[in-house]
Amino acid sequence: MPAGKPEQSSAMLYGMIVFIILFVAATVFAIMFYVKYSDTSTQLATQQSSNRELATGEEARNVGQLIGDRDGSYLGTLLGQFDNLYKLATGKMAVEEQSTSAKLSMAQELVNDMYAAVGGGSTAPDDVSLAWIASQLRSQRDEYMQRSQTLASTIEQMKEDWDNAVANFSETEEQLLEEKAIFSSQAQSMQKQVDQIQQLADQGAETQMSMLQSQLEEKNQKISATSQQLAELEELYSKSESSRRRLEEKIESIKPRPDIELEAYKPDGYVLSVDVQRGIAYLSIGSDDKIYRGLTFTIFDKANPRPEDGKGKAEVKVFEVMSKVCAARIIQSRPDSPVIEGDIAANLIWDSKTPYQFVVTGEFDITGDGKVDYRGRETIMQLIRDWGGIISDEISVNTDFVVAGNPPRRISEPEGETDSVDPLAEEKYEQTQQSYQQYKALLEKAGDLSIPVFDTRRFMNLIGYNTEAKLSMPKM
User: DSSP letter at 304?
Assistant: First the structure.
């Protein structure tokens, strides 16, 4: 090996050793630095956490502005300021061993007590402060002072009024005493006058009694004469009243009475011609007069248009209607008095211009067999409605006709034992009595108002429905 090569190899070896030593040293240094950095980071994180517990970042940056001038540390300055506030609020020195929470609690209790003292509750709201309480106390103090001044002024005024009243009372008392003396003097004078009058009265009593007795006798004589004249006048009046009544009765007997049934016999039409073989009569009324099929009429003799019983010479029933004329079948007629031209056709219910108003009362024998028809009243009312009439329950000045059947039947008043047999006997008796009284009242009112009243037979005659009724009523 050449001489220069071993030296070169040694240098490289030394260099390698130095590099390794330096590398190891650098590695150890790096490890130590890392460990130190880790400890420092942990301490820094712990310190930052502690700082955040003391104040936020914003508060820490503005701590000087928030606390102001400090004497020592910021926290110490802040605690000192809090102790000063505690002293201002409570008037007591803060104890160093007490926490701020305890001091704040004591201050809050003081605020609650003061709030209750000014009329609040046991616990002060969050918006109540010592300044507000002081303001309330100041207001109450001012109010009490004003009341005290007002009360003092009132007391002063009352004292002044009392003094004036005492002075006035003294003056009034003196006036009353003076008036008492005057009244006493007047009373004595009046007593003397009364004594004098009494003496005069005693002296003239007999004379006055005699005069009064004479006047009384004179008055009695005048009263007796007046009574006799009054008796004569009463007798004369009685005779005059009797004469007046006789004259009124005589005038009433000769005075013509109004015919209240005239409207019932008013002609509705006339017979134009008669087909005797077919039993058809042609009447002078048609559809223009609101005639319709099924309507019945009574035919009255033109020479005797108003029979007392309302019974005509025939009954006809319309079966064909034209504009001006209608054809009616003769359903009943008298052989001795045939229907002729010019006879009168009338129906009490039907009218071509004005509907008549009816009141229907009582019990009805429509077929004329002597038996009361159970639905007789309803049948007549329905017939009136069908032919254009109006039904009313009460009589009034607007009522045209009253159709009165037989009086309602009345049952005997039940005796004591009847109730056990028929519990409704008393109720039935009352109902029949009430129906009978209503029937009588309706007829009396109709008479007072001069309203025509027709019984069953006259009503059936005046509407020409006797024959139709016997055919249409069901057999019992």
Answer: B
> What mean pLDDT do residues 227-238 have?
80
* β-sheet bridge partners, residue 332: 315
Distance of CA 460 to the CA centre of its chain: 51
Q: Tell me the sheet residues that pair with 333.
A: 314
Instruction: Say which residues have a Cβ less than 8 Å from residue 339's Cβ, sequence separation at least 6.
Output: 271, 274, 281, 299, 313, 314, 316, 330, 333
Which neighbouring-strand residues pair with 299? Answer: 314, 345
pLDDT of 173? 76
Mean pLDDT of the chain: 82
Task: Check residue 411 and report its DSSP letter.
Answer: P
pLDDT at 1 over 50: no
User: Two tokens at 405?
Assistant: 């059947």
Task: Enter the tokens of residue 135.
Answer: 């303001």
> Do the domains at 263-347 and 349-476 have one common CATH topology?
no
- Cα gap 23→445, rounded to integer Å: 147
Per CATH, which fold does 349-476 belong to? Rossmann fold (3.40.50)
Structural contact between residues 315 and 279, judged by C-beta atoms closer than 8 angstroms: no
Q: What is the DSSP letter of 289?
A: G
pLDDT digits (tens, 9 = 90+) for 358-381: 999 999 998 888 888 889 999 999
Whose tokens are 């007549």? That residue is 380
29, exposed or middle or buried, with CB in 10 Å at 0-12, 13-18, 19+? exposed
Structure tokens at 45: 């994180």
Range with lowest mean pLDDT among 166-175, 372-381, 401-410, 449-458 = 166-175
Query: Is 340 buried (19+), middle (13-18) or exposed (0-12) by CB count in 10 A?
Result: middle
Average pLDDT on 397-413 reads 91
> In 3D, which of 301, 298, 295 has the Cα closest to residue 327?
295
90-106 confidence digits (pLDDT tens): 777 767 667 777 777 77
Residue 281, class by beta-carbon neighbours within 10 Å (0-12 exposed, 13-18 middle, 19+ buried)? buried
The pairing of strands 269-275 and 344-346 is antiparallel
Count, residues in the chain = 476
The residue extents of the domains of the chain are: 64-128, 263-347, 349-476
Looking at CATH, the fold of the domain delimited by 263-347 is given as Thrombin, subunit H (2.40.10)
- Per-residue pLDDT of 349-360, as tens digits, reads 999 998 999 999
Per-residue pLDDT band at 336 (split at 50, 70, 90) = very high
Query: In which order are the strands placed within the sheet that holds 390-391?
Result: 390-391, 357-361, 401-404, 453-454
Let me know the angle formed at the C-alpha of 446 by 443 and 450, rounded to the nearest 5 degrees: 140
